[in-house]
Structure formats: C-alpha cells, structure tokens
Amino acid sequence: MRFKQESTHLTPEQLLPNQSTPLKKISTIQIPPPTPPNPSFQYSTELQHYLSGRSLLPDELSFSIEDLHEHYLNGYITYGKGLNNYHCHRCGNRKKHLFARFNCFRCQGECTYCRNCIMMGRVSECTPLISWTGPPPTSVNLTLFDWTGTLSKAQQEASNRVVDTVKTNDNLLVWAVCGAGKTEVLFQGIHEALSKNKRVCIAAPRTDVILELSPRLQKVFPNTSITTLYGGSDDRHEYGQLVLTTSHQLFRYKRAFDFIVIDEVDAFPYSYDPTLKYAVEKARKSKSAIVYLTATPDSQTQKNCSSKKQNHIRIPARYHRHRIPMPRLVWCGNWNKAFEKNRIPSILKKWTLQRLQQNKQAFIFFPSVKIMEKALPLFQKLNPAIEAVHAEEPHRKEKVQKMRSGETPILLTTTILERGVTIPNIDVAVLGAEESIFTESALVQIAGRAGRSAEYPKGDVVYFHYGKTKGMINAIMHIYSMNKEAGKRGLIDG
Ligand SMILES: [Zn+2]
Ligand SMILES: [Zn+2]
Predict the structure, then answer these.
(1) Helicase ATP-binding domain: which residues (predicted)?
(2) Tens of pLDDT, residues 45-79
C-alpha cells in the first residue's frame, strides 16, 4: 500500500482519483500528527471493539479501505509504519539478517520485509500498521466476581500484594512452589482491575495453560468478555476486557493493557527470542501493572530477589499445608551402558517393579527421546501397559489422558511433562539426573509433580544418577529452603 502525502493527512493510493500523483511507501513518509477524534463522527463500534489496543495490518481488518480512511480522517485510527531502517514496529526485530528484500507487488518495486514475524502476515516497508485512536470500549456492567473458594494464609498475603500492585501500577514477582495455587492468587487483582474498567492480559508460554485457564476464569468472571488467543485460535475478532494469550500473539497489541500477568516467566521464551520482551512492553500501557509468576526463577532472578532489586513475594507451601516431597539421590551406575545391553539399571528396575506391585502410578523422566525409545520395550516387558511420550509424539494428549484415567501404570517421558500435568497420586523418577537437560529448574518442576493433591500429599521422588551435579544439589536445596521457610511462617502442619 502506498500513500499520497498531504500536509495534514495521508491518502491511500486506492482512493486517489488519478495515478499521476507521486506516491510513497509509508516507511519513507513523515507521518502527520494525529487529528483529535471528531466527536460528531459516527464511528463503527465494531471497528472500535476489534482494533482498540491493537496494531494490525490492513489484511487483518475486514473493513473496506473507504471505511478505514473515513475513520482516519476523523481521528479514530492512525496509519503507522510497519517497518523502517531495519526496525520492525510489530515485533521489534532490529537484526539485519532477519529482514529480506523481495519484489513487491503492492509498491511495485524492491521492498524489505521482516522475517521474524512473517508467520503472522508480512510486515514490509509499504505496510501500514493500523491502530485505534478513538475512545476504548466501555463496559457499563458491574464486573461480576463469582468465586467462593478460600485462600491459604500465604496465598492471601500474595493476593494482597497483587491487588496493591494493580492499584499502584507497579511490578511484582510471585514465586510460588509447584502446586501452591497461583491462579487463585490473581483473582482479586484481576477483579480490582476489571471493576475499574481496566484491561487485563494473562500471557503464558504454553497453549495448554491458556486452554485450561480460559474456562476457569470465565466461571469466576461470568460477565467479562474474555478473548483466548493461541496459534490457530479463531477468537481474534472480539474485544476482550480480559485477554488470555500465548506469547507470540502479543505482537498484535499496542498500549492495550493496564495489567499484564506473565505466567511461568522462567519458561517464557525470552532468552531465545528477545523480541518477546518488546512485545510485552509494547502491549502494556505506559502506566500499567505487571505481575510475573514462577515456581522456578532463574539464578539471575533469584539474585535480584535476594538483593531486593526485584519486588517479590514467595509462597513456599502448597495450599494443602503439606511439605513438598524431598527428592532422593540414588546412584544407578552407567545407565547408558545398561540400556545398550538391553537391561534396565537394576535399581531403577527394582523401583519400577515396586510401583507396579503397589499399583502406584509413576512418571519416569528420560534425558532424551533416543534413550527413552531404547528403554520402552524393556519396560513393557515388566508391564505391557507402560507407555512413553515426547514432544513430537502425535498421540501425546491421548497418552496423558490414559495416564489420568489410571489406564497407564507408568509413563516414560522426556522433559515435555515437567510442567502442567497433575496426576493426584504419583511417584516420580528421573533417569540420568546428571544430564545437562535436567537443570535446577527442570528438576524442581519434576519433583513438583508429586504430592499435589490434598488426598495424596506425599510421593516418592528419586533422581537416579551416574554422578552428582550442581543442578541436582541446587534443586534439592531449593525445595529444602522452601519447606524450611514454610515451616517458619507456619504454613505447613506437622
Ligand atoms: Zn517483525
Ligand atoms: Zn512493498
């Protein structure tokens, strides 16, 4: 799309009567200051709901260019640059090698585009990003808050801090052990924000988390419009007062949110993709609150917490007031060699047989798919119902479901199940705990699978290893210190 530049406004080429006027790519135009919204203009509430707080390509809007332009001339939308000078304004990419040039049909010449966010539609030098500059949609309804649960003492303290953070537009890290009940800790803060007509976003790295949260939150906030976004979702066309989204979908938002929650911030692919940090900053309003949730902050974050550089609150105990099962270290010899000889390391075999005899379900975590596939037939000799899952496994969901229903006695898995999956009464083993994939955080998360339910608060957690590592020791220290703090603060019984 090219524009004719006039002193007070731009005109898209499609709306020009003759093609002889000089046309420019939006990347080379000095964008005129926005006109204030004309109060007598009848704006489209549909467009308002769709576009408010977002920054979208013309192709993502199902409105005619005539319609859009009228809103532009009346001060309700702006045309912004998609990219210029090797800077993508949607995803923040500034790495030259992540741009490419192509022969552009729209501007009829060579045009640069961003490769980093290409999966969301092409942003090029001639692509405008369109944003809403009119008033945001208002909800006149009183926000209903339908939650009758109670919070534990530690949850309540954290919840109060979240509410304060929302009120003061501050930031807070909630460091809550696995199974602490962190979602409930957000409810009062979300209600505080929604009831002031603020817009709230919960971003999580995994689609599973978003899919699980969505119905839960809809129940708690029954008259709040909730938008649920993940790669492949079809919920994109509604205005959500509360937006649940996976990380990448945040790229479409701009100055939208008064309160953002980043769930599992340590698993957020920040470190692989710095543009996600940009996406979060772009999506929040300049005055807004942000809450990070994690069970396993990385070492830098842990340091920032202890030096008080990072506002934080810890929930060191589970809501059921039992301590977190302490992992045991068990030497299992050269497990690699054992599997090569088609044997399960004998101590692991013994542990597995004990679970089978006691009818106790278990997860066994493997350091790689290769070893796990080698091991599976050996385990199936012990019991043919034993199964294995990994990331590329097409029947992953069904297999996890069979584990939940109790049909599968023991599930072999890679670190793919280190988070999120909750089975009430389960023991957990890690094979080759010294392998680099089993970081402190992975080992803490894995241990966190055991003892989750109030009915079965205990569970055996074993790190089978062929040599101790810092990661293993740190994981044990991590859990130990959480239990200790929980004891001191009176958050566990016995
Ligand atoms: Zn981009
Ligand atoms: Zn172009």
Answers:
(1) 163-315
(2) 999 999 999 999 998 888 999 999 999 999 999 99
